[in-house]
Design brief:
The complex is a heterodimer. Chain A is built from 5 helices and 8 strands; from the N terminus they run H-H-H-H-H-E-E-E-E-E-E-E-E. Chain A is an alpha+beta fold. A 4-stranded mixed sheet of chain A has the order 1-6-3-2, with no helix packed on it. In chain A, strands 5-4-7-8 form a 4-stranded antiparallel sheet, with no helix packed on it. Chain A is rod-shaped. Chain B is 79% helix and 0% strand. Chain B contains 10 helices and no strands. Classes of the chains: A alpha+beta, B mainly alpha. At the A-B interface, helix 2, helix 3 and helix 4 of A face helix 2, helix 4, helix 6, helix 7 and helix 9 of B.
Chain lengths: 208, 197
């Protein structure tokens, strides 16, 4: 019988009396053997004490698969919370500026932006989803980008959203949707540029 | 640490060599703890008392009349410890059967209980730390089967579809880590200091 087996049998109480007593004398003569036995005794006693409290610590799942699932669930939760918070941030919402996708949208409130000389009044953006009719000369064979900026003092410009690949609805009209509820009061600009060309951009200012 | 034969220790102690008494304590104390732990049912305070008492009895005997066969000093110390443990058990039994009506109404001395549980508590904390570290639920269940339910290795290996080598490896790893945790918590040093010798 090897020494480890002897230790296990002594601690488990499987040795006969004479064998156990001889083993105890051997422990007195070999302090390192005695220490090994004592750690074994304490491990058994400690396990017993923990088990008396609850056996849950022995059976809890600790497999790598469970950890991976937990990690994946955490990432999904993090992304959901992130998207939710991002959607609630004014000015960061993708839908603040959108393409016109159906004729129904033409029935709601609208705002007309046009470059008219001599006009001093600045258009006001109504609340809610607003169809913005931009009047100018457009080439139906091209795509246009529409950039929504907020204008601040000292010519500071903050980009809110940009829409690419917009087709004019006629040679003189380009329509987009703006969500007035998502814009804070202030002065804004819509800059319309013909994509893949050097043509000068058209700037339209409005207020909310 | 070099092992000093019982005959030499006995002779030196009889001649008044104090360093030999220290050697005897260092040499026998771990083994006495093993022997007495088995007989004190997890009462850490009683274990400490009996280890100390055994060492004192042995040293006084060697200083005085000596023992019949100095070569069997370890066997003499072991038998002294067993006798003291039996005496302590008998004393406890007597205290249980001598009904003292006033004593039965007194509250139990909790300070003794705290001391006696301290050793187990420390082992339990180390076991908890060990269980937390074991990544495989299988390893934790294996410890439970082996130490608490006393299943034999063959049976556990069959149940858990393990080879004996894998079982021994996992067990050995757990033992090493348990020992490391206890040593990091100062188990070995503190227990030697507790002897106060």
């Amino acid at each position: 019988m090897n020494q480890q087996q002897l230790i296990e049998d002594y601690v488990a109480g499987r040795l006969g009396e004479a064998e156990a007593e001889a083993f105890e004398v051997a422990c007195l003569e070999d302090p390192e053997l005695a220490r090994q036995v004592e750690f074994e005794q304490r491990l058994k006693a400690g396990l017993g004490q923990v088990a008396r409290g609850s056996t849950a610590e022995f059976v809890r799942s600790g497999s790598p698969l469970s950890w991976r699932l937990a990690a994946a669930a955490s990432v999904v939760l993090f992304l959901c919370v992130g998207v939710y918070l991002w959607q609630r941030m004014p000015g960061a919402h993708a839908q603040v500026l959108a393409a016109l996708t159906s004729d129904v949208q033409r029935d709601g409130p609208s705002m007309r932006l046009a470059l008219v000389r001599g006009t001093e009044s600045v258009p006001q953006l109504p609340a809610g989803k607003v169809r913005v009719e931009i009047v100018g000369l457009f080439d139906p064979g091209f795509h246009y980008s529409v950039m929504l900026d907020r204008l601040r003092q000292q010519h500071e410009v903050k980009n809110i959203a940009t829409l690419y690949g917009q087709h004019p609805s006629s040679p003189v009209t380009l329509e987009v949707m703006l969500d007035g509820d998502q814009l804070a009061p202030g002065t804004y600009s819509l800059r319309v540029r013909k994509q893949a060309s050097d043509d000068e951009a058209l700037d339209f200012t409005f207020e909310k | 640490m070099d092992f000093i034969p019982g005959g030499e220790l006995s002779r030196r102690i009889r001649e008044g060599d104090v360093s030999a008494e220290s050697e005897l304590i260092r040499q026998f104390e771990p083994g006495l703890r093993v022997l007495l732990r088995r007989r004190t049912g997890g009462d850490h305070g009683l274990l400490q008392d009996l280890v100390q008492e055994t060492l004192l009895v042995v040293i006084q005997r060697l200083r005085g009349v000596g023992i019949d066969d100095p070569q069997k000093l370890a066997a003499f110390a072991a038998q002294t410890a067993r006798n003291l443990a039996i005496a302590s058990l008998r004393k406890a039994e007597r205290q249980k059967t001598d009904v003292d009506s006033e004593a039965t109404e007194r509250k139990p001395d909790s300070s003794r209980g705290v001391e006696s549980q301290a050793g187990d508590l420390e082992a339990a904390l180390a076991v908890r730390a060990l269980l937390r570290e074991l990544p495989q639920a299988r390893d934790r269940l294996m410890l439970k089967r082996f130490y608490l339910e006393d299943h034999d290795k063959e049976h556990i290996c069959q149940e858990m579809q393990l080879t004996e080598a894998a079982f021994n490896q996992a067990l050995s790893r757990a033992r090493r880590r348990f020992r490391q945790i206890l040593e990091e918590r100062g188990f070995a040093k503190r227990d030697l200091l507790n002897l106060g010798l």
